[in-house]
Every structure is written in structure tokens, then in C-alpha cells.
């Protein structure tokens, strides 16, 4: 309850921040984009989104927080594109946001308001959220895709998606859950299976949670497209991320 009232005040005061974790092309090391991650400092302490996002979901505050995240990410992507060059930014979308009937319209309005090219926005949705109600989410995903936004399935491999099921989904990217990246190189079965599935469906692949040079090497050899994790970089404040964008152009 204290967390809930703190969160309400934070929403009103907009006292959140986004940090940006770089993603690189596995083959070349070239910067390919960022994942935006929300941060909240409350009464002097950093509260993890793993703790407050569930509360925001339960209370419905996620709708307003999610809108702020989208706005901030699009504002940043547009500024970087104008000042340096086009770099995609990925944003996490929670269950309740995706289920909101106004979600695709919101995304369209935010892109327009900030003059953001749709291809610079990627939406990350977890496999379990999509799977829980595919029929319900499919029209929304199709509308988002029609805007030109890219869709990534986050934490992939933790659910039970089949080839048949994935084929009908309008998605562009599979993000291999970091638990399976963590198993590399000694237990590569799941990572191998996900990469084979993605290649079969012409989907791009991102490995998240890459922490060691051995993992990076295995993934590059196995044909994973993009790498993300502490080995490459921790999530960065906007200014530090911008410095990376600058050197990439
Ligand atoms: O950044 P960190 O690893 O602490 O994130 C913990 C969890 O919170 C992850 O599951 C991540 O996807 C989620 N998360 C981070 N930022 C956002 C956000 O802006 N919106 C939503 N819905 N989830 C987020
Ligand atoms: O669920 P999602 O994939 O959105 O979670 C992103 C979270 O993973 C962020 O909180 C981020 O801080 C965290 N993260 C990013 N890279 C690494 C990593 O290499 N190792 C670990 N343990 N966590 C990471
Ligand atoms: Mn994510
Ligand atoms: Na993930």
C-alpha cells in the first residue's frame, strides 16, 4: 500500500527515468539499437521495476506509466535521429497496456506527436502475455504492425509457443530469454532450438543477458543476429547512451 501511494505520487510528478541498454550486431559489434528500461527512485532508494510494475498493473497505474514511457522513448529516438542518426528504441509493454482498447491508437498518436518514424519504435511483449490470449491480442498486434512498428517477443522460450502458433503472429523479433543464454555454452539445446525456429520463420533474433565472452562467441557462431547484456553494456543514462549513438554515426 505504501508502494501504491508512492507510485501514485510518482505518476503525478513524473518522477521516473528511462535508462537505455545497447544492443549490438553479433557479427560486427555495430550498435543496432537500445532497450528502454524504467527506473524509479523513491525516498532515496532505487525500486526495481520487477517490484513496482506488478503493483502498477494491479492498480491500473501502468496505463499512465506506460504512456509516459512511450512518450519519453519516442522523444529520445526522434532527438537522436535528428542530431546523429536513426537508432531504434525498444519499449516493454505489459499485459494490461496491450489489452487496453486504446493502445494502438495511443502508439499512433505518440509517434505523430513526436514526429517519430515508426520503424524506430520496437515494442517488447512477453511470450506469456501474448499466449494467454492470442485471439484477443492478434487484431491489436496487426494494427501496431500496420503502423510500421516492430514487434519483439520478449523472454522467448519460457512459454510453449509452437511453430504453427508463431507463424500466425505478426512479429519481427524473438528475444531469447536470459535464462537460456545463461546456460551457454554447456547446455545450448533451448538456444539452438529458438534460433532454428526463428531462422525457419525469418524472424530476427536477440540474445538477452549476455554476460560472458564464451556466450557471445557461441551466439555469434550459431547465427544469432543481435546481442544484449552486461558484457556489452549495462543500461545507460540517456546522455551516456547518446554518446554511443554519436560515435556510431
Ligand atoms: O530493468 P530491469 O532488469 O530491472 O527490469 C526488470 C523487469 O521490469 C523486466 O522484466 C523488464 O522487462 C521490466 N521493465 C523495465 N522497464 C519497463 C517498462 O518501462 N515497462 C514495463 N511494462 N516493464 C518494464
Ligand atoms: O524482461 P526483460 O528482458 O525486459 O528484462 C530486462 C532486464 O534484464 C533489465 O532489468 C536489465 O537490467 C536486465 N539485464 C540486462 N542485461 C542483463 C545481463 O546481462 N544480466 C542480467 N542478470 N540481467 C540483465
Ligand atoms: Mn525486455
Ligand atoms: Na526479457
Describe the overall structure:
- The protein is an alpha/beta fold and 249 residues long.
- The protein has one domain: TIM Barrel, CATH 3.20.20.
- Helices cover 50% and strands 21% of the residues.
- It contains twelve helices and nine strands.
- The chain has an eight-stranded mixed beta barrel with strand order 1-2-4-5-6-7-8-9, surrounded by five helices.
- Helix 3 runs parallel beside helix 5 and helix 5 (103-114) runs parallel beside helix 7 (134-147).
- The longest helix has 22 residues, at 62-83.
- The radius of gyration is 18 Å and the shape is globular.
Features:
single chain, 249 residues, alpha/beta, TIM Barrel, 12 helices, binds guanosine-5'-monophosphate, binds manganese (II) ion
The tally of helices reads 12
Give the distinct bound molecules.
guanosine-5'-monophosphate, manganese (II) ion, sodium ion
Q: Count the E strands.
A: 9
Q: Overall mean pLDDT score?
A: 95
